[in-house]
Specification:
Layout lengths: L13 H4 L15 H9 L2 H23 L4 H17 L1 H14 L3 E5 L2 H14 L4 E4 L3 H5 L2 H7 L3 E4 L2 H9 L15 H12 L7 H18 L2 E4 L3 E3 L4 E6 L3 H7 L3 E7 L3 E2 L5 H12 L7 E5 L13 E7 L3 H6 L14 H5 L1 H6 L10 H12 L1 H4 L11 H5 L6 H14 L2 H11 L2 H14 L2 H15 L11 H8 L1 H7 L12 H11 L3
Parallel strand pairs: 1-10, 2-3, 2-4, 4-7, 5-8, 7-10
Antiparallel strand pairs: 5-6, 6-9
Helix pairs in contact: 3-13, 4-13, 17-20, 24-25
The protein binds iron/sulfur cluster (SF4).
The site of iron/sulfur cluster has 15 residues, from helix 15.
Length: about 525
């Protein structure tokens, strides 16, 4: 049995052993969202990396969706399958469990993160495991499995390149499918030089070859493979894991034991349903027609010639999902297939990235599921981290109405316990904001005052508009009314139209034009 403090496997390098035990981003929580977002907005490098990646993913998604002439129909069918499964989730989970066990898998049920971690740690302890290789998995991030294993003296090495990069950096993922989306090539090069001791280089081929070499050694030495699950098929007891790097193939086949952590919402009824989800998920996530690898695992390997683990453990994780299931409105959050498209489309995520959300689930879907999974008191800021523009709803391959969910959660906060309400009110409704909205309401509810204000503003702006721009006014605003300068700090203040809409309308009316 491995005890705390026991020496790590010799396969680990001295440099890796010196990795910081404490994650330096641990202080970023949903409770500090406002401050996190402000810090992110001031990070020029971060915003550049985000702009590049989200634009690219968005463009590729659109092209990939257009390659199918029945995209909308597929979305509707996928949603219908998810709705039907969620309505009878208990039955499908039982069916999945029975079929998986028929082929040699052992299924465990975990009510929460602590139970799930305890199961994995017990399995590892009983086999004297010291090194685990992991493939990218949001469920294991959600339960903080690496930290739990580390407390047992077991080292978990991330083998997805993006996850490996952020593990080396001591960070958390900032995107559901691209964990290191916030990092530039230069930052990764520096990290590899610092942590892996290679000569400084920004040659991507050399950087990836270095990671491949380090990770190959880990696969060979690992006692356990750990992964998440993209879909669990009730009809056959099969788990499907998607990837592009081949690391999941190695994670699920080289170590003797494999542990798959699967959120209970990942089950789908029939094998044939995969056809629909396999068209939607890669296209929505990376714009690929299909990921490079699809690992379908049904039980343990049957003969020496077979690939696959000798022991397969599937942990069905609840951790708050049953609560979401009870309510017909929040239930649709469980239809999410974690493609990340809503993150790329979200104007808020595009500016601040994932870490600002302080949760393993960032972006629009993170703003919806974080408060539901971890409690409203911890994440009351997140449902407000949206402009409600609806871009997330438009791109979601399973048609989740995220704006509806955000509004529902906001209503829950408004009508909920005093301390949660106060938490949001005190941050969101500053005195200056309250006064501004009161004034706005006074003007907007009195047409004569609205028109008069327009005239006054036009007269005033004529003093400062030069060549159609009033950019310098931001500095004046900064002196007179600091909150207003927040707008002009990053963009020009546009002059209002020379003639009001009403004036133009009256003119058209007089001229008798349609
Ligand atoms: S909510 Fe929809 S778009 Fe966002 S990650 Fe989930 S499936 Fe993808």
């Amino acid at each position: 049995m491995v005890r705390r403090g026991q020496a790590l496997t010799p396969a680990l390098s001295q440099r890796e052993r010196e990795q910081p035990k404490q994650n330096f981003m641990d202080h970023l929580t949903p409770e500090t969202f406002d401050a996190n977002a402000r810090a992110a907005l001031n990070d020029v490098q971060l915003r550049g990396a985000l702009r590049y990646a989200t634009t690219l993913f968005g463009k590729r998604r659109l092209e990939a969706a257009r390659s199918l002439d029945n995209w909308e129909e597929l979305r509707s069918r996928a949603r219908a399958i998810k709705d039907e499964t969620l309505l009878h989730l208990d039955r499908y989970l039982e069916e999945f469990s029975a079929n998986a066990e028929k082929f040699g898998a052992q299924v465990h049920w975990a009510r929460d993160a602590a139970e799930a971690n305890a199961i994995v740690c017990k399995l590892a302890r009983e086999r004297g495991a010291r090194l685990a290789v992991k493939s990218k998995s949001m469920a294991t991030e959600e339960i903080h499995l690496n930290a739990a294993l580390e407390r047992e003296g077991i080292t978990a090495v991330e083998t997805d390149l993006g996850e490996y990069i952020i593990q080396l950096a001591g960070e958390t993922p900032s995107h559901i499918i691209a964990p290191a989306i916030h990092k530039t090539k230069g930052q990764i090069a520096e990290l590899f030089t610092d942590k892996l001791g290679i000569a400084p280089t920004e040659d991507i081929a050399r950087l990836t070859a270095t990671a491949r070499q380090v990770l190959r050694d880990k696969f060979g030495a690992a006692d356990i493979g750990i992964s998440g699950v993209n879909f669990g098929v009730a009809e056959t007891g099969t788990i499907l894991i998607l990837e592009n790097e081949g690391n999941i193939r190695l994670t699920t086949s080289l170590p003797k034991m494999h542990v798959a952590v699967m959120g209970i919402e990942k089950v789908i009824p029939r094998f044939a349903d995969l056809e629909i989800f396999l068209k939607l998920l890669p296209r929505s996530g990376t714009g690929q027609h299909l990921t490079a690898y699809q690992s379908l695992i049904t039980g343990t390997r049957r003969s020496a010639a077979d690939e696959g683990p000798d022991e397969l453990h599937i942990i069905l994780l609840d951790n708050g999902r049953s609560r979401m299931l009870e309510n017909p409105i929040t239930r649709q959050s469980l239809a999410c297939i974690r493609c990340g498209a809503c993150l790329n489309a979200c104007p808020v995520y595009q500016q601040i990235g994932g870490h600002a959300y302080g949760s393993v689930y960032p972006g629009p879907i993170g703003a919806v599921i974080t408060p539901q999974l971890f409690g409203m008191a911890k994440a009351a800021q997140l449902p407000y981290a949206s402009s409600l523009c609806g871009a997330c709803r438009e791109v979601c391959p399973v048609k989740i109405d995220i704006p509806e969910l955000l509004l529902y959660l906001r209503a829950e906060i408004t009508e909920g316990p005093e301390e949660i309400r106060h938490e949001v009110e005190s941050r969101k409704r500053r005195t200056s904001e309250r006064v501004a909205f009161k004034l706005w309401a006074v003007v907007m509810t009195r047409p004569w005052l609205y028109e008069l204000s327009g005239r006054v503003l036009r007269a005033l702006q004529s003093l400062v508009v030069r060549r159609g721009r009033i950019g310098k006014v931001g500095k004046v605003l900064q002196l007179l009314a600091p909150p207003l300068a927040a707008w002009t700090a990053a963009r020009d203040l546009r002059p209002i139209e020379r003639r009001s809409f009403r004036a133009q309308w009256r003119e058209k009316d007089r001229a008798g034009s349609p």
